[in-house]
Write a structure and sequence with these properties.
By secondary structure, this protein is an alpha/beta fold. It has helices at 18-30, 51-63, 77-83, 97-107, 121-133, 140-155, 176-188; strands at residues 9-13, 36-38, 68-73, 91-93, 111-115. Helix 1 (18-30) packs across helix 5 (121-133). The structure holds D-ribose. Residues 14, 16, 50, 73-75, 77-78 line the site of D-ribose (RB5).
């Protein structure tokens, strides 16, 4: 006999999905056969972070501790991005009933992601039931595709790290010592104890009085000040 579709389900949400999680949890617990693990957050915390709850859930699904997972954030996007980082997880943001079951039947989806700020409670519960009741078809073509997906996990192993954004796309950050020193110099003037010798006053041109946006590309060098990339505009300098 096939085990209950509501057996060993995990659920997790950040503040954006907390309310929907509580609703779904109460619905799941009404099912006599339900065994649900709540991975948090256990209370509404306005600035909590979805990876702190979605990651334990996703890890539990990948390890088999729970069979299926329900991951919720405000939009469902962050939850989906996060869950799919865990090898063995196949999660997707679901916004329709067809995908809720077809994602399992064809793609063996094991975590459904929902947007707590996007979908109504009753509709989300219908999708969750469709997700939990669906079974992977096991058809050869779907196995073949999933095997190719699994190969990606092996090839791009978790031990490898990929910078995001790519280095060449990274915004250049202000060189902290110089930026802080210049700001303090502008606010307080003169030498500041404990700080490197302050930049030449010409560096004030970094905040152009003309357009507020100009950045002097090569400010005069001062031997005592470590030289990094050109300073970026400071807060309050317009733009
Ligand atoms: C949090 O405000 C929100 O960004 C998060 O819940 C989720 O929507 C992310 O995708």
């Amino acid at each position: 006999m096939r085990s209950s579709p509501f057996h060993r389900v995990g659920i997790a949400a950040d503040h954006g999905g907390y309310e929907l999680k509580e609703y779904l949890l109460s619905e799941l617990l009404r099912e006599a056969s339900a065994e649900v693990i709540d991975f948090g957050n256990s209370q509404f915390v306005a600035d909590d972070d979805y990876p702190d709850f979605i990651t334990p859930l996703a890890t539990a699904v990948a390890s088999g501790e729970v069979v299926r997972g329900i991951a919720i954030c405000g939009s469902g996007v962050g939850a989906s991005v996060c869950a799919n980082k865990i090898a063995g997880v196949r999660s997707a943001l679901i916004n329709d009933s067809f995908s809720a079951h077809q994602g399992v039947e064809d793609d063996d989806m094991n975590i459904i992601c929902l947007g707590g700020r996007v979908v109504g409670h009753a509709l989300a519960w219908e999708w969750v039931q469709a997700f939990l009741q669906a079974q992977f078809s096991g058809q050869a073509r779907h196995r073949r595709r999933l095997e190719k997906v699994a190969q990606l996990e092996n090839r791009w192993s978790p031990t490898r790290t990929f910078p995001h954004p790519k280095p060449e796309e990274s915004p250049r950050k202000p060189e902290p010592v110089r930026a802080v020193a210049l700001e303090r110099w502008e606010n307080e003037g003169g030498e500041i104890p404990g700080q490197p010798h302050l930049p030449h006053p010409a560096e004030r041109h970094l905040r152009s009085p003309n357009d507020g946006n100009s950045i002097t590309p090569n400010p005069p060098r001062n031997a005592d000040v470590p030289v990094g990339p050109p300073l970026q505009r400071l807060p309050g300098s317009g733009g």
